[in-house]
# Entry
Amino acid sequence: MAENVYADGSTAPGAIRIRRATAEDAEAVTRVFLDSRAAAMPYLPRVHSDADTLAWITHVVLPTSTAVWVAEEAGGALLGFAVLAGDDELDHLYLRPGSLRQGIGSRLLAEVRGAVDGPLNLYVFQRNAAARAFYERHGFTAVAFDDGARNEEMEPDVLYRWVAGEGSPVESVRGG
# Structure
């Protein structure tokens, strides 16, 4: 884990650190989740209220996930988070809208990769071109396409897989 490791290797003000999330992070994680989805995916239906989303983050995501990491500025402002579910699923990786393209998502992804022993899987909405490009740049390969029946937004998604040290693409399977 990269706790107390900053983006430039220093402890200077304004530096970013990655640490394990605590229960006290629930409100900030929820805000990042809601703001990020609204900015990056305005086409998604809102299927839960903000209060229900906070309850889900507080009572499900934080206490039952394998691990949750947060990225924060030296002053404590939360910039993003990543969630590992089970042994092999990146369940969430979200950044505050103003925190994109600063290497924060890559650092959070590195934490998740470091915590798994085998392949890492994740789902991304098919229309989320920016997220798909991010994961593909990081060596993930699309392995299955779904019609949206598996998620509550009913939005077609893609299953991606990353395998450590694998040089060739994973065979793509089309379904749905």
About this structure: The radius of gyration is 16 Å. The helical segments are 26-40, 50-64, 104-114, 129-137.
